[in-house]
Design a protein that fits this description.
The chain is mainly α and about 260 residues long. The protein contains eleven helices and two strands. The protein has a two-stranded antiparallel sheet with strand order 1-2.
Length: about 260
């Protein structure tokens, strides 16, 4: 007998580990796991659309589960207007453009299995969120505690003090730490190439495991320093320029000179 007025019990969302342990998965669960794998190791699990060494989790920390670290529990916010492309974006288009800009790769078709899998994973993380309401600590913080303009020269000093051990003096990355500039990093059209956005991310999360240990001004300065470094061109600058860039990088790989 159903008792009116009593809330129905809601089954807890299975963890990724629990899903992996199951012998049988339905289509949605299989897509969630595939999407998780893509987020955690994009070059390995989505190589045909990925163009650099970055994985989604390098920006969407801990597989998109870190508050103030660009978490991915945002399915309920889409579709939404995006000034970058001037259209109303569904979650699929948002994912496809990440491959183009942040991964410096090729935009997948809307029905690509990789896109559908990442979308399923984002929906999985978004279970329990209110549709249309921004989740707590989504995106990155907006810095309000700075009283000076960004200073790239000061940012270089902070970078050499606090960032080199993980990202290397030339920004190429050490071990699993991602490259922050150069041909293997995100393009000039990526969201992380926005100084204010990068500053909020850096202040809240970097150095990894010691977020908020830099001042907001130091984070802003580091973001400005990173913004001035060489990186792949914005795909919106033209296909010919992008093709020329890829040829130069290919030629550099043959000669050992970058």
């Amino acid at each position: 007998m159903l008792l009116v007025g009593l809330p129905l019990a809601v089954a807890a969302r299975p963890t990724i580990e629990e899903l992996k342990a199951r012998s049988v998965l339905d289509d949605y669960e299989s897509n969630v796991l595939h999407g998780y794998d893509i987020v955690m190791d994009t070059p390995r699990h989505a190589p045909r659309y990925s163009g650099n060494r970055l994985s989604c989790t390098n920006c969407h920390l801990a597989g998109g589960t870190t508050p103030d670290g660009l978490p991915l529990n945002v399915a309920g916010l889409y579709p939404r207007w995006r000034a970058k492309n001037g259209v109303r974006n569904g979650i699929g288009l948002r994912i496809r453009e990440c491959f183009l800009y942040s991964h410096n790769g090729v935009m997948p078709p809307a029905d690509a299995p990789e896109v559908l899998a990442v979308a399923a994973y984002i929906n999985y993380l978004s279970e329990g969120e209110v549709i249309g309401k921004p989740p707590k600590h989504w995106g990155v913080p907006t810095l309000t505690g700075t009283n000076q303009d960004p200073n790239p020269a000061m940012g270089e000093m902070v970078y050499r003090r606090a960032c080199v051990s993980c990202h290397a003096a030339d920004g190429s990355g050490v071990g699993s730490a991602p490259p922050l500039w150069g041909p293997a990093s995100y393009s000039a059209g990526a969201g992380m190439n926005n100084v204010q956005k990068a500053a909020g991310f850096i202040w809240a999360n970097m150095p990894l495991g010691a977020g908020r240990s830099l001042t907001q001004q130091e984070a802003l300065d580091v973001a400005a320093y990173l913004h001035l470094q060489g990186r792949p061109v914005d795909p919106r600058d033209g296909r010919l320029r992008k093709l020329a860039e890829r040829f130069v990088h290919w030629l550099g790989g043959l000669t050992g000179r970058r």
